[in-house]
Design goal:
This protein has about 80 residues and is an all-alpha fold. Helix content is about 90%, strand content about 0%.
Length: about 80
């Protein structure tokens, strides 16, 4: 035999179900937000490290160019008899 339920009780049950679902969604949203915050911080650190590496690579290129100029200058000095 089917249990009879009033419309008011059914409405309360549905409302409670929605409230429970909303609570679960809120908890999940907070977890996701925390994870994204962690990911954002990691990306910030990676970007900072990449900027440092880019700077160091630029310095290395300049040093290599400087070495090339020194070598060329030494050849010119030799040809001019200055060395």
């Amino acid at each position: 035999m089917a249990k009879k339920i009033t419309l008011e009780k059914l409405a309360i049950m549905v409302a409670n179900g929605f409230d429970e679902t909303n609570g679960k969604i809120d908890k999940l949203e907070k977890k996701v937000d925390k994870r994204f915050d962690k990911v954002d911080k990691r990306f910030d650190r990676v970007e900072k490290r990449l900027a440092i590496i880019e700077f160091e690579m630029t310095e290395l290129v300049h040093r290599d160019e400087f070495r090339q100029y020194i070598a060329r200058l030494e050849k010119v000095e030799e040809k001019l008899g200055l060395k």
